[in-house]
Amino acid sequence: MNAATSRARFGSHLGLERIALVCRELGSPQTGLRFVHVAGTNGKGSVCAFIARAMMSAGYKVGKFTSPHLISYNERITVNEEPIADTTLKDLGEKVERACRKVEASHPELGMVTEFEYCTALAFCFFRQMNVDVVVLETGLGGRLDATNVVEPELCVITPIGHDHMDRLGPTLTDIAREKAGIIKSGVPVVVAYQREEAHAVLRHTALGCGAPLHLVAEWAYEPLGWGLSGGRLRLPELSSTEFSVRLLGSHQLDNAATAALALQILRERGWNIDTEDIRTGLAEARWPGRLEVVSREPLVLLDGAHNQEGLETLAAALTQLEEQVGGSGWTFVFGMLGNKDLALLEILLPLGRRFVFTQADSGRLDPMPPEKMAAYVQTRGVKGEVCLPAAAALRSALLTPPVCVCGSLYLIGTIKRDLADLGIVTQ
Fold it and tell me: Whole-structure pTM over 0.90, yes or no?
């Protein structure tokens, strides 16, 4: 993926001018495609997975665009859950790279096309080539100025908004919500997950202001019925008197499942041929690796990509509940995060940790936080922090004192997943 790798150095500068010109150069591949556009801080990928799997069950050919990937770049662009082939990625990549260079040559004032813009344009080309029925499209960063926001969607979905990318999106939840709300379009229905009050106010105001029908999970009949290591259950009375099940773990995944189910219900009302059993299948069969993922039960090893305040708070709540179920005496954390994060995020996990093993991913969009810096921080809180590199060695050390949770960065999760087989761990 040479072009994408080389373009990563251009960073992530927001704006729609470059992506619009690149798409035009490519013949506007996004036009004629039908989209479900998903923004938010936490839960975007899970909601995309639920929606895509249900629409597959209904017989649709479903494209899905998500980021970042865990192991292979191809994971970002799938059709019916099959990643784009290497040869197709290479061929389309060369075509998109030529378009990017033409735009850069004719509009130097706009700066270089970023890796995410390149990838977004490539995905549009692939989905058009594959003649998909619908694309479940996840935003990369924010919404208003995100490269994906050049589409005209069938439906918008906003998952929980929290504190992340504040250097780019603004210092307050209101600022961040305003950017996420930028995907809302005139007359296009929008499904909104549970939100904090400040975010909810922004989303409601934006939807009302542009005449977008607003559908709130908080006002829908939904009852979570609990979860454990085997998955969770929920009741959606407006769809069926029989309860629904999910494979994904955590009470937050029950909320995500309800958000996806409401989105699917709205699509059905708008003429899509999706029945209740398709929704049931989608919720029950959807997988989303690296999110409270159990990769081993004996010993218990979980991987979770939580990397911001709300994500880590959700993880901490889930681990507290799991500890009661498995009778543990505290978790061993393998932890690594990007260097632009706040060390205070560690405070969320300190009460749960019997051991902290700090490490780093072998790659990432930004430089990693030095493990020594994280260890020194927790030591000021009276907790022993160990440093262990590389990540595989950190997990090997952690396995001496299970249960183990690897978290802090999706890049770290990707690194660990590549090493699981060598450590004798077979993914469940």
Answer: yes
